[in-house]
Amino acid sequence: MENIHVPNPRIAEKMKTGPHLTGVKHIGFQRTSAIFKTNLVCTIRCVSIFAGTALISLSAAIEN
């Protein structure tokens, strides 16, 4: 018995339409903001650390 590979027909369909692009759709403010911050700082973890540091520093600056 011989196995014959039959490719999924959706592969040919996907090759016609191309990859899904997020830039084509409206992605909203929160996602746009997250993408901007991530591109600026490289990881969302670093963004969170910087934001936490800024909040701590802000409260100290307001007290003085």
What is the approximate shape? Answer: elongated
Percent range of helical residues: 55-70%
Instruction: Count the E strands.
Output: 0
Q: Main beta sheet: strand number and arrangement?
A: none
Structural class: mainly alpha
Alpha-carbon Rg, integer: 23 Å
Series of secondary-structure elements, N-terminal to C-terminal: HHH
State which percent range the strand residues make up: under 5%
Distance between the termini: 83 Å
Explain what this protein looks like in three dimensions.
The protein has helices at residues 9-17, 28-41, 44-63. The chain has 64 residues and is mainly alpha-helical. The longest helix has 20 residues, at 44-63. It starts with 8 loop residues before the first helix and ends with a helix.
Task: Give the SSE map.
Layout: H1 9-17, H2 28-41, H3 44-63
Brief summary of the model shown:
The chain has 64 residues and is mostly helical. It is 67% helix and 0% strand.
Task: Jot down its keywords.
64 residues, mainly alpha, 3 helices
